[in-house]
Amino acid sequence: MAFETASSSELHQEHKIKIKQVLDEVGKVVVGQEYMVNRLLAGLFTNGHILLEGVPGLAKTLTISTLARVLHLDFQRIQFTPDLLPADLVGTMIYNQKDGKFEVKKGPIFANIILADEINRSPAKVQSALLEAMQEKQVTIGETTFKLDKPFLVLATQNPVDQEGTYPLPEAQVDRFMMKVHVEYPTKEQELEVMRRISNMQFGYEVNTVLTKEDIFAIRAEVNKVKISESLEKYIIELVFATRRPKEYNLTNEAQYIQFGASPRASINLNLSAKALAYMDGRDFVLPEDIKEVAQDVMNHRILLNYEAEADNIKTADIIKSILNKVPINK
Questions:
Q1: What is the pLDDT at residue 124?
Q2: Is residue 1 a part of any domain in this protein?
Q3: Residue among 197, 169, 288, 304 nearest 243 (CA)
Q4: Which end of the chain is less packed: N or C, by CB atoms within 10 Å?
Protein backbone atom coordinates (compact mmCIF):
# COMPACT_ATOMS: atom_id res chain seq x y z
CA MET A 1 0.00 0.00 0.00
CA ALA A 2 1.48 3.34 -1.00
CA PHE A 3 -0.56 5.70 1.16
CA GLU A 4 1.22 8.74 2.57
CA THR A 5 1.81 7.55 6.17
CA ALA A 6 1.70 4.31 8.09
CA SER A 7 -1.33 5.52 10.05
CA SER A 8 -3.27 6.43 6.89
CA SER A 9 -2.37 3.04 5.40
CA GLU A 10 -3.66 1.31 8.53
CA LEU A 11 -6.85 3.37 8.43
CA HIS A 12 -7.41 2.47 4.80
CA GLN A 13 -6.85 -1.21 5.61
CA GLU A 14 -9.38 -0.95 8.45
CA HIS A 15 -11.92 0.68 6.15
CA LYS A 16 -11.30 -1.94 3.47
CA ILE A 17 -12.16 -4.66 6.00
CA LYS A 18 -15.30 -2.76 7.02
CA ILE A 19 -16.42 -2.41 3.39
CA LYS A 20 -16.09 -6.19 3.02
CA GLN A 21 -18.18 -6.54 6.19
CA VAL A 22 -20.85 -4.25 4.68
CA LEU A 23 -21.10 -6.58 1.67
CA ASP A 24 -21.32 -9.60 3.99
CA GLU A 25 -24.07 -8.03 6.11
CA VAL A 26 -26.15 -7.05 3.06
CA GLY A 27 -25.59 -10.59 1.76
CA LYS A 28 -27.38 -11.97 4.83
CA VAL A 29 -30.61 -10.47 3.48
CA VAL A 30 -30.07 -10.06 -0.25
CA VAL A 31 -28.91 -12.91 -2.48
CA GLY A 32 -26.52 -11.74 -5.19
CA GLN A 33 -26.66 -8.10 -6.38
CA GLU A 34 -23.04 -7.49 -5.32
CA TYR A 35 -22.62 -5.35 -8.43
CA MET A 36 -25.51 -3.08 -7.40
CA VAL A 37 -24.20 -2.77 -3.82
CA ASN A 38 -20.71 -1.95 -5.15
CA ARG A 39 -22.11 0.90 -7.25
CA LEU A 40 -24.28 2.18 -4.38
CA LEU A 41 -21.19 2.34 -2.16
CA ALA A 42 -19.22 4.08 -4.91
CA GLY A 43 -21.95 6.73 -5.02
CA LEU A 44 -21.98 7.06 -1.24
CA PHE A 45 -18.19 7.45 -1.04
CA THR A 46 -18.11 10.12 -3.78
CA ASN A 47 -21.32 11.99 -2.91
CA GLY A 48 -23.01 10.87 -6.13
CA HIS A 49 -26.65 9.91 -6.66
CA ILE A 50 -27.55 6.63 -8.39
CA LEU A 51 -30.38 5.75 -10.77
CA LEU A 52 -31.27 2.05 -10.79
CA GLU A 53 -33.14 0.54 -13.71
CA GLY A 54 -34.51 -2.98 -13.71
CA VAL A 55 -37.68 -5.00 -13.96
CA PRO A 56 -39.76 -5.51 -10.79
CA GLY A 57 -38.73 -8.15 -8.27
CA LEU A 58 -34.94 -7.75 -8.42
CA ALA A 59 -34.62 -6.67 -4.74
CA LYS A 60 -33.72 -3.05 -5.52
CA THR A 61 -35.78 -1.69 -2.62
CA LEU A 62 -34.69 -4.45 -0.23
CA THR A 63 -31.01 -3.92 -1.06
CA ILE A 64 -31.17 -0.17 -0.45
CA SER A 65 -33.12 -0.43 2.82
CA THR A 66 -30.75 -3.15 4.09
CA LEU A 67 -27.70 -1.07 3.14
CA ALA A 68 -29.13 1.89 5.09
CA ARG A 69 -29.52 -0.34 8.17
CA VAL A 70 -25.94 -1.63 7.86
CA LEU A 71 -24.66 1.95 7.57
CA HIS A 72 -26.94 3.18 10.39
CA LEU A 73 -28.26 6.02 8.25
CA ASP A 74 -31.73 7.58 8.30
CA PHE A 75 -33.71 6.04 5.46
CA GLN A 76 -36.91 7.11 3.74
CA ARG A 77 -38.70 5.33 0.92
CA ILE A 78 -40.94 7.52 -1.22
CA GLN A 79 -43.27 5.78 -3.64
CA PHE A 80 -43.65 8.11 -6.60
CA THR A 81 -47.24 8.18 -7.89
CA PRO A 82 -49.09 10.40 -10.39
CA ASP A 83 -50.87 12.28 -7.59
CA LEU A 84 -47.71 13.04 -5.57
CA LEU A 85 -47.07 16.75 -4.92
CA PRO A 86 -43.75 18.55 -4.28
CA ALA A 87 -44.96 19.33 -0.74
CA ASP A 88 -45.34 15.59 -0.11
CA LEU A 89 -41.61 15.35 -0.75
CA VAL A 90 -40.01 18.42 0.83
CA GLY A 91 -42.66 19.42 3.38
CA THR A 92 -44.98 22.39 3.81
CA MET A 93 -46.21 25.10 6.16
CA ILE A 94 -49.12 24.11 8.41
CA TYR A 95 -51.23 26.36 10.63
CA ASN A 96 -51.00 25.71 14.36
CA GLN A 97 -54.34 26.82 15.81
CA LYS A 98 -53.05 26.66 19.37
CA ASP A 99 -50.20 29.12 18.74
CA GLY A 100 -52.02 30.99 16.00
CA LYS A 101 -49.09 30.83 13.58
CA PHE A 102 -47.67 28.74 10.74
CA GLU A 103 -44.98 26.18 11.41
CA VAL A 104 -42.85 23.99 9.20
CA LYS A 105 -43.70 20.33 8.71
CA LYS A 106 -40.66 18.68 7.12
CA GLY A 107 -41.13 16.03 4.44
CA PRO A 108 -39.40 12.67 3.95
CA ILE A 109 -36.58 14.31 1.98
CA PHE A 110 -34.94 15.03 5.37
CA ALA A 111 -33.06 11.75 5.64
CA ASN A 112 -29.60 10.44 4.71
CA ILE A 113 -30.68 7.89 2.11
CA ILE A 114 -33.74 8.57 -0.02
CA LEU A 115 -35.23 5.79 -2.10
CA ALA A 116 -37.26 7.45 -4.85
CA ASP A 117 -39.17 4.38 -5.96
CA GLU A 118 -40.35 4.47 -9.59
CA ILE A 119 -39.35 8.10 -10.03
CA ASN A 120 -40.84 8.13 -13.53
CA ARG A 121 -44.36 7.64 -12.08
CA SER A 122 -44.63 11.27 -10.93
CA PRO A 123 -45.06 14.53 -12.89
CA ALA A 124 -42.22 16.91 -13.71
CA LYS A 125 -42.86 19.24 -10.73
CA VAL A 126 -42.17 16.45 -8.24
CA GLN A 127 -39.12 15.22 -10.14
CA SER A 128 -37.79 18.78 -10.25
CA ALA A 129 -38.25 19.21 -6.49
CA LEU A 130 -36.24 16.06 -5.85
CA LEU A 131 -33.53 16.91 -8.36
CA GLU A 132 -33.18 20.41 -6.92
CA ALA A 133 -32.59 18.89 -3.48
CA MET A 134 -30.00 16.56 -5.04
CA GLN A 135 -28.14 19.44 -6.67
CA GLU A 136 -28.35 22.12 -3.99
CA LYS A 137 -28.39 19.83 -0.89
CA GLN A 138 -31.07 22.12 0.52
CA VAL A 139 -34.81 22.78 0.26
CA THR A 140 -36.95 25.86 0.79
CA ILE A 141 -40.25 25.64 2.67
CA GLY A 142 -42.16 28.91 2.80
CA GLU A 143 -39.49 31.56 3.25
CA THR A 144 -37.01 29.36 5.10
CA THR A 145 -34.18 27.38 3.53
CA PHE A 146 -33.09 24.18 5.25
CA LYS A 147 -29.79 22.40 4.70
CA LEU A 148 -30.15 18.65 4.23
CA ASP A 149 -28.31 16.33 6.57
CA LYS A 150 -25.00 14.81 5.45
CA PRO A 151 -24.46 12.35 3.93
CA PHE A 152 -27.40 12.82 1.56
CA LEU A 153 -27.83 10.25 -1.17
CA VAL A 154 -30.73 9.77 -3.57
CA LEU A 155 -31.17 6.29 -5.00
CA ALA A 156 -33.92 6.37 -7.59
CA THR A 157 -35.47 3.40 -9.36
CA GLN A 158 -37.34 3.27 -12.61
CA ASN A 159 -39.12 0.43 -14.31
CA PRO A 160 -38.14 -0.11 -17.99
CA VAL A 161 -41.37 -2.02 -18.67
CA ASP A 162 -45.02 -0.98 -18.29
CA GLN A 163 -44.40 2.58 -19.50
CA GLU A 164 -48.09 3.53 -19.63
CA GLY A 165 -48.77 6.46 -17.34
CA THR A 166 -45.13 7.33 -16.75
CA TYR A 167 -43.33 10.66 -16.98
CA PRO A 168 -39.83 9.89 -18.28
CA LEU A 169 -37.09 12.08 -16.85
CA PRO A 170 -35.66 14.59 -19.34
CA GLU A 171 -32.03 13.94 -20.28
CA ALA A 172 -30.89 17.13 -18.51
CA GLN A 173 -32.36 15.83 -15.25
CA VAL A 174 -31.08 12.27 -15.65
CA ASP A 175 -27.62 13.80 -16.17
CA ARG A 176 -27.56 14.77 -12.49
CA PHE A 177 -27.29 11.14 -11.49
CA MET A 178 -23.69 10.02 -11.18
CA MET A 179 -24.49 6.58 -12.55
CA LYS A 180 -27.40 4.76 -14.13
CA VAL A 181 -27.04 1.13 -13.13
CA HIS A 182 -28.91 -1.63 -14.96
CA VAL A 183 -29.94 -4.29 -12.46
CA GLU A 184 -29.81 -7.73 -14.02
CA TYR A 185 -31.71 -10.93 -13.33
CA PRO A 186 -30.11 -13.29 -10.76
CA THR A 187 -28.26 -16.40 -11.87
CA LYS A 188 -29.97 -19.81 -11.63
CA GLU A 189 -28.06 -20.58 -8.42
CA GLN A 190 -28.99 -17.22 -6.86
CA GLU A 191 -32.66 -17.55 -7.76
CA LEU A 192 -32.69 -21.07 -6.34
CA GLU A 193 -31.32 -19.69 -3.05
CA VAL A 194 -33.97 -16.94 -3.01
CA MET A 195 -36.71 -19.48 -3.61
CA ARG A 196 -35.44 -21.72 -0.81
CA ARG A 197 -35.16 -18.86 1.67
CA ILE A 198 -38.69 -17.67 1.01
CA SER A 199 -40.22 -21.16 1.01
CA ASN A 200 -38.50 -21.90 4.35
CA MET A 201 -39.63 -18.53 5.75
CA GLN A 202 -35.99 -17.50 6.12
CA PHE A 203 -36.23 -13.75 5.85
CA GLY A 204 -35.99 -10.76 8.15
CA TYR A 205 -32.37 -11.46 9.11
CA GLU A 206 -30.82 -9.16 11.68
CA VAL A 207 -27.92 -7.12 10.32
CA ASN A 208 -25.15 -5.38 12.21
CA THR A 209 -24.12 -1.75 11.83
CA VAL A 210 -20.68 -1.63 10.24
CA LEU A 211 -19.90 1.92 9.13
CA THR A 212 -20.74 5.13 10.98
CA LYS A 213 -21.21 8.59 9.47
CA GLU A 214 -17.70 9.44 10.66
CA ASP A 215 -16.34 6.41 8.81
CA ILE A 216 -18.13 7.48 5.63
CA PHE A 217 -16.70 11.01 5.81
CA ALA A 218 -13.23 9.59 6.48
CA ILE A 219 -13.53 7.23 3.49
CA ARG A 220 -14.63 10.15 1.29
CA ALA A 221 -11.46 12.02 2.29
CA GLU A 222 -9.35 8.95 1.50
CA VAL A 223 -11.02 8.46 -1.90
CA ASN A 224 -10.15 12.07 -2.73
CA LYS A 225 -6.48 11.21 -2.14
CA VAL A 226 -6.50 8.34 -4.63
CA LYS A 227 -4.07 9.28 -7.39
CA ILE A 228 -4.86 9.31 -11.08
CA SER A 229 -2.11 9.88 -13.63
CA GLU A 230 -2.24 12.67 -16.17
CA SER A 231 -2.41 10.13 -19.02
CA LEU A 232 -5.55 8.57 -17.48
CA GLU A 233 -7.09 12.00 -16.88
CA LYS A 234 -6.58 12.72 -20.58
CA TYR A 235 -7.96 9.26 -21.43
CA ILE A 236 -11.21 10.18 -19.63
CA ILE A 237 -11.45 13.39 -21.66
CA GLU A 238 -10.83 11.47 -24.90
CA LEU A 239 -13.59 8.97 -24.05
CA VAL A 240 -16.09 11.74 -23.43
CA PHE A 241 -15.08 13.72 -26.53
CA ALA A 242 -15.45 10.56 -28.60
CA THR A 243 -19.18 10.67 -27.80
CA ARG A 244 -19.36 14.25 -29.12
CA ARG A 245 -17.06 14.00 -32.14
CA PRO A 246 -17.11 10.29 -33.02
CA LYS A 247 -15.81 10.75 -36.58
CA GLU A 248 -12.55 12.18 -35.24
CA TYR A 249 -12.01 8.88 -33.39
CA ASN A 250 -12.69 6.57 -36.36
CA LEU A 251 -16.19 5.89 -35.09
CA THR A 252 -17.81 6.65 -38.43
CA ASN A 253 -20.45 3.95 -38.17
CA GLU A 254 -21.38 4.93 -34.61
CA ALA A 255 -21.55 8.64 -35.54
CA GLN A 256 -24.75 8.15 -37.52
CA TYR A 257 -26.57 7.02 -34.36
CA ILE A 258 -25.44 9.64 -31.82
CA GLN A 259 -27.65 12.70 -31.50
CA PHE A 260 -25.96 14.25 -28.47
CA GLY A 261 -22.76 13.27 -26.69
CA ALA A 262 -22.00 13.13 -22.98
CA SER A 263 -21.90 16.29 -20.86
CA PRO A 264 -18.92 17.47 -18.75
CA ARG A 265 -20.54 15.69 -15.79
CA ALA A 266 -19.45 12.46 -17.49
CA SER A 267 -15.76 13.45 -17.20
CA ILE A 268 -16.15 14.46 -13.55
CA ASN A 269 -18.00 11.29 -12.58
CA LEU A 270 -15.71 8.95 -14.52
CA ASN A 271 -12.85 10.36 -12.49
CA LEU A 272 -14.66 10.11 -9.14
CA SER A 273 -16.16 6.65 -9.65
CA ALA A 274 -12.86 5.22 -10.94
CA LYS A 275 -11.17 6.51 -7.76
CA ALA A 276 -13.90 4.90 -5.63
CA LEU A 277 -13.46 1.53 -7.38
CA ALA A 278 -9.68 1.70 -6.96
CA TYR A 279 -10.09 2.51 -3.27
CA MET A 280 -12.55 -0.34 -2.67
CA ASP A 281 -10.09 -2.65 -4.44
CA GLY A 282 -7.41 -1.64 -1.94
CA ARG A 283 -5.36 0.66 -4.17
CA ASP A 284 -4.40 4.32 -3.84
CA PHE A 285 -4.07 4.76 -7.62
CA VAL A 286 -6.41 4.38 -10.59
CA LEU A 287 -5.86 1.79 -13.31
CA PRO A 288 -7.27 1.98 -16.86
CA GLU A 289 -9.47 -0.99 -15.95
CA ASP A 290 -11.22 1.09 -13.27
CA ILE A 291 -12.25 3.67 -15.85
CA LYS A 292 -13.38 1.03 -18.32
CA GLU A 293 -15.38 -0.78 -15.64
CA VAL A 294 -17.46 2.28 -14.73
CA ALA A 295 -17.73 3.73 -18.25
CA GLN A 296 -21.05 1.99 -19.00
CA ASP A 297 -22.70 3.11 -15.76
CA VAL A 298 -21.45 6.69 -15.99
CA MET A 299 -22.14 7.28 -19.70
CA ASN A 300 -25.14 5.12 -20.62
CA HIS A 301 -27.65 7.84 -19.62
CA ARG A 302 -25.60 10.71 -21.00
CA ILE A 303 -25.47 9.68 -24.66
CA LEU A 304 -28.65 10.42 -26.56
CA LEU A 305 -29.25 8.25 -29.62
CA ASN A 306 -31.46 9.13 -32.58
CA TYR A 307 -34.38 7.31 -34.18
CA GLU A 308 -32.06 5.62 -36.66
CA ALA A 309 -30.37 3.83 -33.77
CA GLU A 310 -33.74 2.62 -32.53
CA ALA A 311 -34.66 1.40 -36.01
CA ASP A 312 -31.37 -0.52 -36.29
CA ASN A 313 -31.67 -1.83 -32.70
CA ILE A 314 -28.47 -0.08 -31.63
CA LYS A 315 -28.16 0.42 -27.86
CA THR A 316 -26.11 2.95 -25.92
CA ALA A 317 -24.10 0.05 -24.48
CA ASP A 318 -23.01 -0.88 -28.03
CA ILE A 319 -21.76 2.66 -28.67
CA ILE A 320 -19.82 2.78 -25.39
CA LYS A 321 -18.27 -0.61 -26.09
CA SER A 322 -17.05 0.62 -29.50
CA ILE A 323 -15.62 3.77 -27.91
CA LEU A 324 -13.70 1.76 -25.30
CA ASN A 325 -12.32 -0.49 -28.05
CA LYS A 326 -11.20 2.33 -30.35
CA VAL A 327 -10.01 5.15 -28.09
CA PRO A 328 -6.38 4.49 -27.08
CA ILE A 329 -4.61 5.43 -23.86
CA ASN A 330 -1.74 7.74 -24.77
CA LYS A 331 1.22 7.38 -22.45
A1: 82
A2: no
A3: 304
A4: C
Same domain, 316 and 212: no
Distance CA 82, CA 166 (A): 8
Q: How far apart are CA 194 and CA 86, in angstroms?
A: 37
DSSP-assigned letter for residue 329: -
CA dihedral 246, 247, 249, 254 (to 10 degrees): 50
**Shared-domain flag, residues 115 and 213:** yes
The predicted model scores a pTM of 0.85
Boundaries of domain holding 186: 6-217
| Residue 175, strand partner residues | none
One domain for residues 36 and 120: yes
163 with 294, same domain: the answer is: no
The CATH number linked to 196 is 3.40.50.300
Give the model's confidence band at 6: pLDDT under 50 very low, under 70 low, under 90 confident, else very high: very low
Nearest in space to 183 (alpha carbons), one of 50, 325, 323, 25: 50
DSSP string, 187-206: PHHHHHHHHHHHHTT-----
Pairing between strand 179-182 and 50-53? parallel
93 by DSSP, 3-state: which? strand
Q: How many domains does the chain have?
A: 2
